[in-house]
Amino acid sequence: MTYKNKEGYPDPTSGRAINGVRWEELQQLREKEHNLKRGQQVILYVKSQSEESSDRGRIKKSEKVRKSYWIVELYRHCVLLKDEKGFCTAPSYIQLQSLMRGGD
Questions:
Q1: Considering the entire predicted model, what is its pTM?
Q2: How many structural domains is the chain composed of?
Q3: Whole-angstrom Cα distance, residue 38 to residue 63?
Q4: pLDDT tens track of the chain, all 104 residues?
Q5: Which domain holds residue 5?
């Protein structure tokens, strides 16, 4: 959608500003709805695979490890998370709640 000033000329600066305000309002509504904040640190219990060698070969074991993430953005169906190394993941809100509790 192109925004125009009162003379009818295209005004992309005001369009970006209005969309930025709308995005910020949406973020605040989602923060309130899901009780999460951008920049908040969350601890998730994720599966980590380790290998053990035995006389029959290697055996893969999965165990739950605590890992900290920071909330970057809240979207309609998922949350963008970033860890300390900069890797991002985007679980749904239901998956996020389950990972925070330690479930699968």
A1: 0.74
A2: 2
A3: 29
A4: 678 888 989 888 888 998 999 999 999 999 999 999 999 999 999 887 666 666 666 666 678 889 999 999 999 999 999 999 999 999 999 999 999 998 75
A5: 1-35
